Amino acid sequence: MGTAPKIILAATIIAFSSEWYQTDKPNFRIPVAGILMAWVFQGIENLDENAGIGLALIAFTTSLLAPVKGQKSPVDVAAKIVGSNRK
């Protein structure tokens, strides 16, 4: 397994756990989509290593910072867990 799929799977784990923490129920569509995207990014990395890793890092950063469906972003959830005063 290359670097890009590992980055995508890390983003998948973060998104899945954030969604589960906020809704109190697991959404198993996230890991399925993450596994498929890891497979796609492995193919991109095989074609062009720098492009695959770069796109995976963009996807990782976006998954950390972007709120989805009116929920908080994973960074906001982590700040809440550690007791930050951020609103």
Output the keywords.
single chain; 87 residues; mainly alpha
Detailed description of the structure:
This protein has 4 helices and no strands. With 87 residues, it is mostly helical. It has one domain (3-82). Helix 1 runs parallel beside helix 3. The model has no long low-confidence stretch (mean pLDDT 91).
The helix content, as a percent range, equals over 70%
Order of helices and strands: HHHH
Give the overall shape.
Answer: elongated
Q: How much strand? A: under 5%
The end-to-end distance, rounded to whole angstroms, is 39 Å
**How many helices in DSSP terms?**
4
> What kind of sheet is the major sheet?
none
pLDDT averaged residue by residue: 91
Q: How many structural domains?
A: 1
Helix/strand/pairing class, anyone?
mainly alpha
What is the β-strand count?
A: 0
Catalogue the unreliable spans.
none
Q: Compute the gyration radius: what is it?
A: 14 Å
Describe the structure concisely for a colleague.
It is built from four helices and no strands. It is mainly α and 87 residues long. It is elongated.
Write the layout of secondary structure elements.
Elements: H1 3-23, H2 29-47, H3 49-65, H4 74-82
